[in-house]
Design a protein that fits this description.
The chain has about 250 residues and is α/β, with parallel strands linked by helices. It contains eleven helices and eight strands. It is globular, with a radius of gyration of 17 Å. The chain binds pyridoxine-5'-phosphate (PXP).
Length: about 250
């Protein structure tokens, strides 16, 4: 069974740093600790309002990381220029609203087809793999394929947020169906948003998903047990769930 990659999102290390200004805690140090704890990649989202990750963080991550950097970005000219300047391993296109607390929904790849196409082509033309963060929805999957994306990252937030068993199963079924379609379309399949120790196993058991991107829960848990322990525990839960497939 294929290794399930863990991408650690370090945005909220920067959130804590920015609460006081200054340089502590350092997102690059967190990224290097994450790598030592078993992360396969690092994700950072440079938002238009720079509320957490700053331009300098992206520069330092791109210069110093030895594992792949997944640059999360809105489809704007400003972000495209920054991506082309630093050549991250991958760029994950996400919708961005100024007033939202976090990324609230997936990208409307179907509705925004014409607008997205030029960004995807420019990134891919510069050897940056392109991922689209979308809902596990057939229409969006078809659009991702038509747009020539390399990867889809399925938004699993709704699955993580529901508490009722029936509703959670319904969300899980949508994710399972979308992951199967990704395979059929030749799209690499990732998943993320809202994952915790309690919600990760059923997602890790979906064989065609090859990467999970996890941030907020790990940084929060690090307050209690340390970042290294939090990441190792998540890694362990993912590996155990995956091993059950073999
Ligand atoms: N994937 C994408 C595309 C995201 O926007 C986020 C949140 O920034 C994550 C994964 C990680 O979500 P969380 O911080 O809830 O684990």
């Amino acid at each position: 069974m294929k290794h399930l990659r863990l991408g650690v999102n370090i945005d909220h290390v920067a959130t804590i740093r920015n609460a006081r200004g200054g340089v502590h805690p350092d997102p690059l140090r967190a990224a290097q600790m994450a790598e030592a704890a078993g992360a396969d990649g690092i994700t950072a989202h440079l938002r238009e309002d720079r509320r957490h990750i700053a331009d300098k963080d992206i520069e330092l991550l791109a210069e110093n990381l030895t594992i792949p950097l997944n640059f999360e970005m809105a489809a704007t000219d400003e972000m495209l220029d920054i991506a082309l300047k630093h050549s991250p391993h991958a760029a994950c296109l996400v919708p961005e609203k100024r007033e939202e607390r976090t990324t609230e929904g997936g990208l409307d790849a179907a509705g925004g087809h014409n607008m997205l196409k030029s960004y995807i082509d420019a990134l891919r033309g510069n050897d940056i793999r392109v991922s689209l963060f979308i809902e596990p929805d057939l229409k969006q999957m078809e659009a991702a394929k038509r747009l020539g994306a390399d990867i889809v990252e399925l938004h699993v937030g709704p699955y993580c947020d529901v508490v009722s068993g029936d509703l959670r199963q319904r969300e899980l079924d949508r994710i399972l169906a979308a992951a199967a379609v990704a395979d059929e379309y030749g799209l690499e399949c990732h998943a993320g948003h809202g994952l915790t120790y309690d919600t990760v196993a059923p997602i890790a058991k979906i064989p065609n998903i090859v990467e999970l991107n996890i941030g907020h829960f790990l940084i929060g848990e690090a307050i209690f047990v340390g970042l290294d322990t939090a990441i190792r525990e998540m890694r362990d839960l993912m590996d155990k769930a995956r091993a059950e497939l073999a």
